[in-house]
Model the fold of this input.
Amino acid sequence: MIGGCLRGWLLAIGLAIAVRGGSAREVPLVLLHTTDLHGRLVNLVPDPGVAPEAGLWRCATLVRRIREREPNVVWVDCGDTVQGTLESLASGGRVIVEALGQAGCDAWVIGNHEFDWGVAALRALVERAPLPVLAANIGATPGAPPPLPGLRPWVVLELSGVRIGLVATTHPTTPRWQPPGALEGLLIRAPQDAIAEVLPAVRAAGADVLVLAIHEGLRAGREDPAPGAIALAGRFPEFDVILGAHTHEAIPEQTLGGGVLYAQAGFHGQWLGRVDLVYDTVQRRVIRKTGTLLPVDASVEPDERLGALAAPAVSRASNQLERVLARVAGPWTTPITTAGDEPAARLLRAAIGEACEVDIVLHGRLSEADMPDEEFRLRDVWRLVPYENRIGICRWTASEIRAALEELLGTPSRTSVGISGLRVHLDPNAPAGARVVKLEMPDGTAPHPRRRFRVAMNSYTIASAGGRWPRVRQMATTPEAALELTSVDTRTALTRWLEQRRRITPADLPPPGFVVSRRSPD
Done:
């Protein structure tokens, strides 16, 4: 009897030791993440500092290598995935979504730029996507049908008996990046409300590990105010990891409130993010977590499995991008008095004005790319115009143009808006709201106060630029403004303008629209 009890006691001790020291207790998990690919299979039109070899084609190789070594791997793409390249645009985004599926991505989160081609185009992608598409805060307005059938708020993925609950949200200010009416029937809710609503169901599904993938992100020293990762971590500390996006920041790991690990994988496929977790099956919690970023460059070979899909699309796009549209005669050395009058900005205004036959164009640069010196190729157009913004036309009086300029000039940026069709005298040292000194017609006369000018802007400006310019949006949508959203996009307008001329000089650009002046207001 004593011997039996002793054997039972020793067996219990042995089992306890086995549990404490054995693999059944600690399960390693790997979360891989990409974001803001912007259509990059490879980087045919790279941003400064980003390797041409960066992109999904080589990211997939790193994912495959990790899966060959690790048993429990989940890969999430955090959005802004399809818009941004010729090869993706030519396929309506299908080449990128199909590549994600072929490469083994486990979930795709909707980003704000996924809506740039319209809700119908996104609906077609979601319906045909070979992987789960997520965004808990996207729904329908009351009485409207589901705008994106097949879209899910969350998924649970099981690895070695451990269930990972993945919740996702898109950027809540997306409507302020789209022109009025573009998202009709679609409702984007506050992320915190949507997360609070779905978490009970995720827990009921038995999720052991909670991961939140958001198309929002941190910026250097601050968060994206919408409400942002820091606020979400404070509200929902039960999440083990938050994967971010949108701001193009590269953040291997950062600890937020409540011990939530935050990570963000840069942009254009220059990094593959990796978060390593260890889950304790006895304590039923994550006991260790670390993050890192793996570089995607020429040292990584393209994934062979994607070759049949990626290589033809990349080859076709590369050949088209080399097409010469116009020769350049003369250096771009026109004096610039203020931001918004750079040669690239004036070039875009010339193309838009001609395409839309308007009186005035309000437009600045769309990137920091330089103008080419000898030949204008399609590749240069894509460098100058990375977005498919459409052109809208408003009917504004001179006083409304002045009010719009005051708001636009009050938030200066590297792509400040300039003007053609009017000459604007500015006092750059004046306080916000008082910088416009005087408006003049090209012949030096004052604009008639009751005349309504046809004013062209891109859809991003009309939408309020993510909320930066609410007064512009309000004025553009009044009945008197008679907003007309054309089918002309900026890139197509520029391409046609160049093709029609075949040879361009600085003299083909409209004159600078701003004059630095400190005269008394009229």
Confidence is low (pLDDT under 50) at residues 1-23.
